Amino acid sequence: MNEPILDILNHEGIRGFTRWEETTGRGSYKGEPHYGTHAWPTKNSCILTMVEDYQAEGLMQRLRKLNQQAETQGLNAYVWNVESTL
Q: What are 27-69's pLDDT values in tens digits?
């Protein structure tokens, strides 16, 4: 789902992000394990971006809509408050 997520970031005017490829884990509720092993060969990836408060809700709405279109892909998104940046 990297390309659709990057399209959303571009549409929302969000330029900066960091992406980690080949992360491992499993979903909290229904997710299949993604361990990169013989038994569970798939892996995840993660994207982190920091946005202004006014951008967060629009971004989350678009990500929710994307997740509804492909719920089995296991898209998760979180909003954390950042106290300070450099």
A: 777 778 899 999 999 999 999 999 999 999 999 999 999 999 9
- Other beta carbons within 10 Å of 85: 5
Q: Where are the domains of the chain?
A: 2-73
What's the predicted TM-score (pTM) here?
A: 0.83
The candidate with the shortest Cα–Cα distance to 66, out of 5, 2, 3, 14, is: 5
For residue 47, count CB atoms less than 10 angstroms from its CB and return exposed for 0-12, middle for 13-18, buried for 19 or more. Answer: middle
